[in-house]
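Good morning,

Attaching, inline, the C-alpha cells for the sequence recovery test we're adding to the shared suite. The designed sequence is right after.
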C-alpha cells in the first residue's frame, strides 16, 4: 500500500483490507478502542509521533514494512 510518505489517514488504512488486517494483527487492542472511529482523519505521521512514546521502534518499523507490502 502507498503510505503517501506517512500522510495516509487512518480512514484510508481502515478501508484497505490488507492494511486493516496488518493493524488488527499487530495492534489488536488499538483496533478495538472506541476512539478509532473519530481518528479517521488523523495521518499515520501523527500517530507515529505519539506511538513512539509507547511502542518500541522495532515494532513500529515492522508494522510499517507490513503496511507497505499490504
Amino acid at each position: 500500500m502507498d503510505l503517501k510518505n506517512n500522510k495516509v489517514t487512518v480512514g484510508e488504512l481502515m478501508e484497505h483490507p490488507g492494511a486493516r488486517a496488518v493493524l488488527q494483527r499487530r495492534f489488536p487492542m488499538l483496533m478495538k478502542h472506541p476512539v478509532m472511529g473519530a481518528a479517521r482523519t488523523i495521518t499515520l505521521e501523527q500517530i507515529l509521533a505519539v506511538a513512539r512514546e509507547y511502542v518500541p521502534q522495532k515494532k513500529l518499523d515492522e508494522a510499517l514494512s507490513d503496511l507497505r507490502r499490504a
